[in-house]
Amino acid sequence: MNFRHLRYFVAASEHGSFRKAGVALGVQESTISRRIRDLEDGLGSALFHRHSGGVCLTVAGQRLLSKAQKVLRYINEGAEIVDAVGRGTEGQLRVGIFSSLASGFLQDLLRTFAAEHPGVYVEVVDGNPAEHVAAIRQFRLDIAFLTGTLEWPQCETTYLWSERVFVVLPEAHALARKEEVKWHDLAHETFIVSDVPPGQEVHDYLVQRVADLGHHPKIQAQFVGRDNLLTLVAIGSGLTVTSEATTAAHVPGICYRPIIGEVLPFNGVWSPKNDNPALRRFVSMAKMMARRQGVDL
Fold it and tell me: Domain HTH lysR-type: where (predicted)?
């Protein structure tokens, strides 16, 4: 028994005639008759009564009909799902992030993709670059958006956008009176970072920048997430730094000031072996948005 046998059987039962079933399916009447005979031989039971006016189901045929219709419906539904996934209109996309979604390029990209592909479930995962890249290589993530200019082996990397770097200050801090700040202004400040991503990367970034000035920065780890870290800045626990997208987050008691000359490049990273159609559409949309913003790809 195969799909074609069931298809011919259901068509013949619905039309009451092998000839009419053949016309509906675009095949010869003899083909319908032969395949149904093969089905009956395989099952060891007659499925139709043949008469001059056409055919009608036997008791065995009646018992088989509902099951056959259900099987064909499942197969057709499965084919539609596979087709939709293949066209990227349905499916799943797993995105690793290393930046705030409060505003900016990444928020716009995710919003636009969701609007144009409502059948694709997008799962967003926070994490550090090494974790994200490992997950991409193992196909546990489809794409990640990471800072810096590193090339990751076994991965495609494309620059998409940049964000300015801001220091986060309590509103009453002396530097809040400035429109912009320099690293020299921050060299003797106490900074706080989160113990969750991107806390370690922020720590390393601060060490590098302040060390370039001949100082060792005072950095304290806080066991809180990104949002609560900003609240700790507001109550005077220390300063922190963040990318431009975060500045859309309004937390009472803090202000953001750009650090002169500091810009973070953001790249999309994915595996060239990943055949997820939703990923191809997502990357295509990201590149199109980047070109509109003047990025030369």
Answer: 1-58
Is the backbone peptide bond immediately before 265 cis, with ω within 30 degrees of 0? no
Q: How many CB atoms lie within 10 A of CB 239?
A: 21
**Nearest CA to 253 among 277, 228, 236?**
236
Alpha-carbon distance 290 to 265, whole Å? 12
| Token pair listed for 138 | 């193992």
Q: Are 36 and 18 in contact (CB under 8 A)?
A: yes
> In angstroms, rounded to a whole number, what is the distance separating the alpha carbons of residues 198 and 129?
9
d(CA 220, CA 158): 34
> Could you read off the pLDDT of 128-183 as tens digits, one per residue?
888 999 999 999 999 999 988 788 899 999 999 999 999 999 999 999 999 999 99
What are the CA-CA distances from residue 135 to residues 96, 126, 172 (Å)? 9, 12, 42
CATH classification (class only), 90-161+266-292: alpha beta
* DSSP letter, residue 248: G
Under a CB-based contact definition with an 8 Å cutoff, are residues 48 and 39 in contact?
no
Fold agreement (3-86, 163-263): no
Contacts of 11 (CB under 8 A, 6+ apart): 21, 24, 25, 32
Pick the CATH number of 163-263 from 3.90.580.10, 3.40.190.10, 2.60.40.2250, 3.40.50.2000: 3.40.190.10
Closest CA to 17 of 29, 27, 25, 26: 29
Return d(Cα 36, Cα 6) in angstroms, integer: 8
